[in-house]
From TrEMBL:
<dbReference type="InterPro" id="IPR017871">
    <property type="entry name" value="ABC_transporter-like_CS"/>
</dbReference>
<keyword id="KW-0029">Amino-acid transport</keyword>
<dbReference type="InterPro" id="IPR052156">
    <property type="entry name" value="BCAA_Transport_ATP-bd_LivF"/>
</dbReference>
<dbReference type="GO" id="GO:0005524">
    <property type="term" value="F:ATP binding"/>
</dbReference>
<keyword id="KW-0472">Membrane</keyword>
<comment type="similarity">
    <text>Belongs to the ABC transporter superfamily.</text>
</comment>
<dbReference type="InterPro" id="IPR003439">
    <property type="entry name" value="ABC_transporter-like_ATP-bd"/>
</dbReference>
<dbReference type="InterPro" id="IPR003593">
    <property type="entry name" value="AAA+_ATPase"/>
</dbReference>
<feature type="domain" description="ABC transporter">
    <location>
        <begin position="15"/>
        <end position="247"/>
    </location>
</feature>
<keyword id="KW-0067">ATP-binding</keyword>
<keyword id="KW-0813">Transport</keyword>
<keyword id="KW-1003">Cell membrane</keyword>
<dbReference type="Pfam" id="PF00005">
    <property type="entry name" value="ABC_tran"/>
</dbReference>
<keyword id="KW-0547">Nucleotide-binding</keyword>
<protein>
    <submittedName>
        <fullName>Branched-chain amino acid transport system ATP-binding protein</fullName>
    </submittedName>
</protein>
<dbReference type="InterPro" id="IPR027417">
    <property type="entry name" value="P-loop_NTPase"/>
</dbReference>
């Protein structure tokens, strides 16, 4: 963690996605998506179920082939770079549904998050990351499968942080999380951004909670961006919710 932020004299976003397309075999699921994620910003991509949010994150993290367009991270292409090469470059994905190792302890899950890094560094970072998640610290020896949905989400985020991300991409961190823990998780994400200067790309169906902590927001529908702007502007726009978010 604690990546020094490299000041960018050209003001280039940390991630620039331009006209990106991706497909499941012959079924195209992203149709030319363009987004920018500035350094140390929180950017959310909103959309109803099936809009293409997970597909976008999978395409950006080397889990799904990119069939067109570009994705430039820190000046270098990440399109079709395998996931295991992206993690050491700082592109880290917290998947939908958390995917913690249920049979392993909280501590063991965290150690695995740092598998690409020297063990001594990871040990030091575990203490630091647990500072953001006191509930996890209390349950450090518990098996992950015994945690609540919200606690498992915290664990998935903490595990992602142990990979030392420069860009942390989160797929529906609110899903399956009790309301009170949702707020705790999102405000912690903002604290982490503020304290670590970490850049966050969050895809969410819960527009309110995501826009509340985001700087910029995008709305996607059937694999296309249909709207974007400052999060505060999108948050005040009831038409968006009616038209695109099914709410
Ligand atoms: N493994 C898959 N094979 C074929 N189509 C898929 C697969 N996963 C998702 N899709 C399709 O891609 C589209 C976008 O899905 P997804 O990215 O999961 O949406 P979201 O995350 O926004 O709910 C949907 O039409 C979905 O049916
Ligand atoms: Mg999804």
């Amino acid at each position: 963690m604690a990546n020094a932020v490299e000041p960018d004299p050209h003001g280039e976003p940390l991630l620039r996605v331009d006209n990106l397309s991706a497909a499941y075999g012959k079924i195209r699921a992203l149709h030319g998506v363009s987004i920018e994620v500035p350094q140390a910003a929180i950017v959310c991509v909103l959309g109803a179920n099936g809009a293409g949010k997970t597909t976008l994150l999978r395409a950006l993290s080397g889990l799904l082939p990119v069939t067109g367009g570009t994705a430039i991270f820190s000046g270098q292409s990440i399109a079709n770079v395998p996931a295991e090469q992206l993690v050491p470059r700082g592109v880290v994905h917290v998947p939908q549904g958390r995917m913690v190792f249920a049979q392993l302890s909280v501590k063991e899950n965290l150690v695995l998050g740092g598998y690409t890094r020297p063990a001594a560094e990871v040990r030091h970072d575990i203490d630091r990351v647990l500072g953001y998640f006191p509930r996890l610290k209390e349950r450090i020896t518990s098996r992950a499968g015994t945690l609540s949905g919200g606690e498992q989400q915290m664990l998935a985020i903490a595990r992602g942080l142990l990979a030392k991300p420069r860009l942390l991409m989160l797929d529906e961190p609110s899903m399956g999380v009790a309301p009170i823990l949702k707020d705790a998780i999102f405000s912690t994400l903002r604290d982490i951004r503020d304290q670590e200067r970490l850049t966050l790309l969050i895809v969410e169906q819960d527009a309110d909670i995501a826009l509340d902590i985001s700087d910029q927001g995008y709305v996607i529908e059937t694999g296309r961006v249909v709207m974007h702007g400052p999060a505060a502007e999108l948050a005040g726009n009831e038409d968006i919710r009616r038209a695109y978010l099914g709410g």
